[in-house]
Structure formats: C-alpha cells, structure tokens
Amino acid sequence: GGGRGGGAARPKGTGAAAPARADGTATPIPTPAHRPEFLAYRILYQAVHARHGEGLALLRTLGTLRPEDAAAPAVRHALAARAALAAGDAPRFAALRARAPGLGAALMDLAVPGLRYDALCAACKAFKPGVAGRDLARMLGFVRRPEMGEGAGGEGGGGAEPQSDPLPGCSAARYVGEHEAQDEERGLASCLAWLEECGAVTGVDVEGAVFLDCKASSGRLARPADKEAVAHGDANLDIGDFMKGMGM
C-alpha cells in the first residue's frame, strides 16, 4: 500500500526532481565536466580585477592549477587572455575575446575599455605623425580580423569542448556583448566615435582615408567617462531608483 495520508510513497534514494525547461526537458545540472569551464571563468574574473584586489587570489588560483585543468581548452584560453591583458596586448586580447568559449567574453568585456585606452596612448607615442584609422580600428578590436574567425575555437586554446546543452540557467551559451568586433565599415565608425570621446584628433589624407593624428592627439587624450557609472559604483543603488521605490 501507499504511505500514511494516502500519498504515494517516493522511491528510496531519489531526491528532488531537476527543474524543467519550458519544453519539459530537465535543466542540466553542473557536473565535474563543467569544472574547467567555471575554472576558466574564475581566472578571467580575477585577471580583469587584478588591479582591484584580486591579484593575490589570481596568483593562488594559478598556483593550484592541476595539469589536467591547465590542459583543458577553456582554461588554456583563459590563461592566454590573462597573459595578453597583463602584457597590454590589445590585438591579441581582441582576438582571444572573439574566440571566448561559453560566457567568457562577458568577463573579458570588463577589461576592453581600459585596454583600448592604454593601447591608444601607446600608439600616439609610438607612431608619428599618425596612423591609419582602419589599422587602428583593427588593432583595438573594433574591426573583425581574419584570424578572429567566428565564435569560439582556435588559437591559444581558445575553444571549449562542444556544448550540447546551454549552461544552467542560460538560454544560450553564446555571448555577443557591446565590444564584439564588427565589419570594416561599422567597426571603423565605432572606432572614430570612440576616438572623439577620448579627445583624439583625426584627419583625412590625400586619398580621403581617415587617420589618427598622433602628434596633435598627444596631451589631449582623456579616458571616456562611464555613462552608466554612479558615485557609489553600483547602478542598482541609484538615488533616483531609491526615491521612486520609497514613493518620494
């Protein structure tokens, strides 16, 4: 018979059912197979925040990497991205961002604005009198280069194992983000708009091509203001939202 109260007895050894998707199939639960993926996320997070208190944590993470973890494609990609970020190698970082497996690009995007600005300052010191706008747009990752390819995979161990299911809680594992490289026309336009925000001086050569005037730009550059930043650093605590919530 059934258990007390007329309810059907639950078979021993079974736990709560896995949450179901809209189509009725079970949502995948993280398993040891996900370890390299989330280890890669940890490395990326600590790398992009290394200057803000995560530097020692990053060293501890790197010091405890097991050989089998370091050999995983997602972890190899994260280690390559960390090295590119530490070296200030904007072209390499942009190429790795284009290949970021899973949701790695979401973390890498946090470092893109600062890395681009530092690369712009370096270009103004290194190139005189100027540099072609199209070359600069490619270097800074605004324009898609052939070696970037499409999606994850390839150079630097930048491909994760194929995912038959999206990550738990995610409808899709592919992240686009605001710093995705574009085709040449749109990417160049985005680059020129960003240069204007930085205070850079551009010109047009005799062939009608736009170039960055490095000499005129030196001493004028300023890091663009974060349009979404608030004084306390957390947009969720904006005073306007707080007053509305209080009915004031």
TrEMBL record:
Pfam families xref list = SAC3_GANP (PF03399)
Query: Superkingdom, according to UniProt?
Result: Eukaryota
Q: Which InterPro entries match?
A: SAC3/GANP/THP3, SAC3/GANP/THP3_conserved
Q: Which residues form the SAC3/GANP/THP3 conserved domain?
A: 34-145
Q: What GO terms fall under cellular component here? A: nucleus
Q: Where is the composition biased (Gly residues)?
A: 150-160
The region called Disordered is annotated at 1-31, 148-171
* Low complexity bias (residue ranges): 9-28
What is the protein name stated in its UniProt record? SAC3/GANP/THP3 conserved domain-containing protein
